[in-house]
Design a protein that fits this description.
The complex is a heterodimer.
Chain A: E1 2-6, E2 9-11, E3 17-18, E4 24-25, E5 31-33, H1 35-49, E6 53-59, H2 64-72, E7 78-82, H3 92-106, E8 111-115, H4 126-134, E9 138-148, E10 151-158, E11 161-168, E12 171-175, H5 187-191, E13 198-201, H6 241-255
Parallel strand pairs in A: 1-6, 1-8, 6-7, 7-13, 8-12, 9-12
Antiparallel strand pairs in A: 2-5, 3-4, 9-10, 10-11
Chain B: H1 6-33, H2 38-50, H3 54-65, H4 74-108, H5 115-146, H6 155-181, H7 191-200, H8 209-229, H9 237-248, H10 262-268, H11 287-294, H12 301-305, H13 307-310, H14 317-329, H15 346-351, H16 357-361, H17 368-381, H18 387-399, H19 412-416, E1 430-433, H20 435-440, H21 442-457, E2 462-463, H22 474-479, H23 482-498, E3 503-506, H24 509-521, E4 527-530, H25 531-540, E5 555-557, H26 571-581, E6 585-586, H27 615-625, E7 630-633, H28 636-647, E8 656-659, H29 660-667
Parallel strand pairs in B: 1-2, 1-3, 3-4, 5-6, 5-7, 7-8
Helix pairs in contact in B: 1-8, 3-9, 4-5, 5-6, 6-7, 6-8, 9-11, 21-29, 25-26, 26-29, 27-28
Classes of the chains: A alpha/beta, B mainly alpha.
């Protein structure tokens, strides 16, 4: 079995802030493997233990090579990182196009695994777009996977209903954080991954036309980012516990919570 | 030897040689069973000698001949001292007689066992014989009547003790028989033999040469059975422990083994493939640590002082070391690491608080906490840790603190308090290393606030790193991410050097140990003092006034493990406490080196393990029993743990918990440096 895992290099959202002048400060933020993709990497690594070959595909800046090492440390055979100046403005459509080119070049694959969303854009579009481009079925929101023979059984949570879907391979599956508990990747484990396992490619090497990825040629662009103040307040209630409880209950009723 | 054929005399030497050969064979078998070759051991000892054996000899002298740690237990200590001291004296006495009789006297006509020296020696040897009997009696009582869980009465050890008792008893009997056959005027010097002589006088008619010779043969046989056979019994520690003490003597309290120096490793550009920081199975350990495990006597002192064990966590350092030792000597079946094979449960290694109480108590100098961290290293390298620990490690990477709060908020409170950064005040004498707790935790900020007020009052020129300060990695290292810790340490040392920082003050003992000792072991040297030391010296210099009155009731002080036992800072905090509370200061039952952990050590602040009670609750109860209405501490983690225990103390709110700096600042009427 051959598996392709999509793993994205993303800034850590807990370290993103707005500058006093209201600009989004992403550049200084530490970067990492998208947390959702870790679950896909973990699942692929487990399948690799029973003989699967695992290739990681990613689109990102040159620094993403370091992130690829971390992704490889979960247990994968190699990683292909597509980069270039166009990456900074790439939209989901462009990313999917490039990832599809990687999938064709490195393929064929029986299974493509990815995280449901990426923490930077939160579009949740790339896996589906990729499936469309590859002409395979797509199932999103996997909470459990049962890979066997020519098909895969996917358990997914839809609201409070659990659904079990069986799809024929090849297929693209995007996974939730309920799928598994990714192992801890120690600093030493990352250091032990040789850089030679990360192949960096550009659009031309993938047989793609760079002109189609120029900022003007993309179908979407982010025109503005602005902070939104969420309204949160607090109020300290004082007095005897019984009084506080009564006052609290009254307040909650007043708000319509109780 | 009166009354014995000459052949007997020379037979002793033959027997002695046979005995030493047997002992050597047993020793060889013993260490080889632990996977240590005598050649490695010899090499290790030569290496120790070439580095200057002074320290090792001093430690061995204090621990073996001075019985420093063994003496801490009244019953077992006395028993051990009686057996060890008496046997040593009797051996020395016998050697002296042999030397005089068969060497100096025979060849040079020189005798030294004469006159008063001889009489005193005789009296001492009689005392030793009685002491040995008393010691063996205590051992028998302990094993048969007291029966601590750690001790059984295995046949081999019974034989060894019996041999000692028979040796001592027949020695006195022989002395008595000699006295009856050849009465002397100085028999009161051989008082024990004399008493036996009085007891056996009614039998004197039936005493003949045959009886004497038979007693003598039994005496010598008993002595040789012990000497030759002790290494086949639990008394093998007679040889293993002193050697292990020598081999482990240079380890500072709490010092962890450096599996590699990452800077050197990266510089050499070597292959990292086989590099590992921990161990999956005891058989992978190097010979020195295999020898260390093999020298465990199973005495149980570690278990008695272990806070994790006291709180009913699934950890006994004794059982842990015994399990590793057992697996080393006869590995259990099965594949995988020691956890997969069921030698230990992972909860045991995560229960350890790295407080160092066990290692400080261990008479054999076994490094239980360090061994535990090495197993954690293995688990982390395997990715085999639960989400809580994984989260701490991830947050350290992302947010540069174990709490998972944004790195850019680290400086917020300090900025508000108007504390200059090192860029703003490059001439600062001290860099104040604030640490994660006080940078992020509202309660712990009170400590930093007090320290800032005190330093300002004393006119100390200080600055902070500001946003470029980050976790030093103490928790990361204790969680087992050694490579991550070393990587971090290199980056932090670089930041400090870039600002020309040499002197650092911190109020966090975890930072103190890390930045002081641990960084030094990685060749990064900074002078780090704890705030209690700096503040105490400011008080002593008169740069800070002594407060006039104290109305906080009885004040006690909880020694943080990282400050006290692991850094040796005991007096400065007490001086500070005395300045604040004067006569109202009371010591806790377990204080100074014997201090009991607050429950946060070894990264335990950040995750939970199964337990029957909380470690912090046990410690707080001790403070309450001492009648303290205020518990002072000098560590933000201890502060948080004990304060939490006080909030949930049985019978309502417990004593007030505060940092020494907070108490002093308050007593001096200083305003908080800034509102939190």
């Amino acid at each position: 079995m051959r598996i392709l895992v999509l793993a994205k290099h993303v800034p850590d959202t807990t370290e993103i802030r707005f500058s006093p002048t209201g600009e989004l400060m992403v550049r200084q933020a530490p970067t990492k493997v998208n947390d959702y993709d870790r679950h896909a990497l973990e699942e692929a690594s487990r399948l690799r233990e029973s003989g699967a070959e695992v290739v990681i595909a990613s689109v990102g800046p040159p620094e993403a090579a370091k992130t690829m090492k971390e992704a490889l440390a979960y247990g994968a055979d190699r990683a292909v990182l597509a980069g270039g100046a166009w990456v900074a403005d790439a939209d989901p459509e462009a990313m999917a196009e490039v990832l599809a080119a990687i999938a064709r070049r490195e393929g064929p694959f029986d299974l493509v695994l990815a995280g449901d969303v990426s923490e930077d854009g939160y579009n949740a579009l790339v896996p589906g777009l990729l499936a469309a481009k590859l002409g395979t079925p797509y199932v999103r929101g996997a909470t459990a996977l049962g890979v066997g023979g020519a098909s895969v059984k996917v358990t997914r949570l839809v609201g409070d209903v659990e659904e079990e879907v069986e799809v024929a391979l090849p297929a693209v599956i995007s996974v939730t954080r309920l799928l598994n508990s990714p192992r801890v990747i120690s600093t030493m484990a990352v250091m032990k991954v040789p850089m030679s396992k990360v192949e960096t490619v550009d659009l031309a090497e993938l047989g793609l036309d760079p002109a189609a990825f120029a900022p003007g040629a993309l179908s979407t662009r982010v025109s503005a980012v602005r902070p939104v103040q969420s309204k949160r307040g607090n109020e300290m209630l004082r007095g005897e516990p019984a009084e506080i409880a009564a006052e609290l209950a009254a307040k909650l009723r007043g708000m319509g919570v109780l | 030897m009166p009354g014995l054929p000459g052949a007997f005399h020379w037979l002793i030497y033959v027997a002695l040689v046979v005995c030493l050969v047997v002992a050597a064979w047993l020793f060889n078998r013993r260490v080889r069973a632990a996977g240590v070759s005598p050649a490695e051991l010899a090499h290790g000892l030569r290496e120790l000698a070439s580095k200057g054996p002074g320290e090792a000899l001093a430690v061995v002298g204090a621990e073996v001949f001075g019985q420093r740690r063994v003496r801490r237990r009244p019953y077992a200590g006395l028993m051990h001292l009686l057996i060890f001291g008496s046997y040593g004296m009797l051996t020395l006495g016998t050697v002296l007689i042999a030397v005089q009789h068969d060497f100096t006297g025979r060849f040079f006509g020189v005798t030294f066992l004469n006159g008063n020296f001889y009489l005193v020696e005789k009296a001492l040897l009689d005392t030793a014989a009685l002491g040995l009997l008393a010691g063996v009696g205590m051992a028998a009582w302990r094993r048969l009547a007291i029966r601590p869980v750690t001790l059984g009465a295995r046949p081999t050890v019974v034989v060894a003790y019996a041999a000692l008792a028979v040796m001592a008893a027949t020695g006195l009997l022989l002395e008595a028989m000699r006295e009856l056959a050849y009465p002397v005027s100085w028999s009161h010097w051989t008082y024990a033999g004399h008493l036996v002589a009085l007891a056996i006088t009614p039998l004197v008619g039936r005493l003949n040469l045959g009886a004497y010779q038979a007693t003598w043969v039994v005496h010598v046989l008993a002595a040789f059975i012990f000497m030759g056979g002790a290494l086949a019994t639990a008394l093998d520690h007679v040889v293993l422990v002193p050697l292990n003490i020598a081999l482990q003597s240079s380890r500072a309290p709490g010092e962890l083994r450096l599996p590699f120096n990452l800077a050197e490793l990266l510089e050499s550009g070597g292959d990292l493939e086989g590099v590992s920081s921990g161990f999956a199975n005891p058989s992978e350990l190097d010979w020195k640590r295999r020898f260390m495990l093999a020298s465990c006597v199973n005495c149980g002192r570690c278990e008695e002082v272990c806070p994790a064990n006291a709180a009913g966590r699934p950890l006994s350092p004794r059982k842990l070391v015994q399990a590793l030792k057992g697996d080393l000597l006869s590995p259990s079946d099965g594949a995988g690491d020691l956890f997969a094979r069921g030698v230990l449960d992972t909860d045991a290694v995560w229960s350890c608080l790295s407080c160092g109480a066990c290692a400080r108590e261990c008479p054999a100098f076994i490094d239980q906490p360090g061994t535990i961290v090495e197993m954690r290293r293995h688990l982390v390298e395997e990715g085999n840790v639960d989400e809580a620990k994984a989260l701490v490690l991830a947050q350290l990477e992302r947010n540069q603190n174990p709490l998972g709060l944004p790195s850019y908020q680290r400086f917020a409170r300090l900025a508000e308090a108007g504390v200059p950064t090192i860029e703003e005040n490059p001439g600062a004498e001290y860099l104040y290393w604030v640490g994660c707790m006080s940078s992020y935790d509202q309660r712990a900020w009170g400590v930093a606030s007090a320290v800032i007020s005190l330093l300002r009052l004393a006119g100390v020129n200080f600055a902070v790193l500001g946003e470029s300060e980050r976790c030093l990695g103490e928790c990361q290292r204790k969680l087992g991410d050694e490579a991550g810790f070393q990587m971090r340490s290199m980056e932090i040392a670089e930041t400090l050097r870039s600002h020309g920082v040499t002197k650092i003050v911190t109020h966090c003992p975890h930072c103190l140990v890390t930045l002081g000792r641990d960084y030094r072991s990685l060749d990064m040297e900074f002078q780090v003092v704890h705030h209690s030391e700096l503040v105490q010296s400011l008080l002593a210099q008169g740069r800070l006034p002594t407060p006039k009155s104290w109305e906080g009731g009885k004040l006690t002080y909880h020694d943080p493990c990282n400050l006290g036992r692991l850094s040796g800072v005991f007096d400065a905090p007490r001086g500070l406490a005395a300045s604040v509370a004067g006569e109202s200061f009371v010591e806790l039952e377990r204080s100074r080196e014997k201090s009991f952990c607050c429950g946060a050590g070894g990264s335990n602040y950040f995750y939970k393990v199964p337990a029957q009670e909380s470690v912090s609750g046990l410690r707080l109860a001790e403070a309450q029993a001492a009648g303290a209405s205020t518990v002072a501490t000098a560590c933000p983690f201890c502060l948080s743990m004990l304060e939490d225990a006080a909030r949930t103390a049985p019978g309502g709110q417990g004593p007030r918990v505060a940092d020494l700096a907070e108490l002093l600042a308050e007593a001096l009427g200083l305003e908080a440096a800034a509102a939190p």
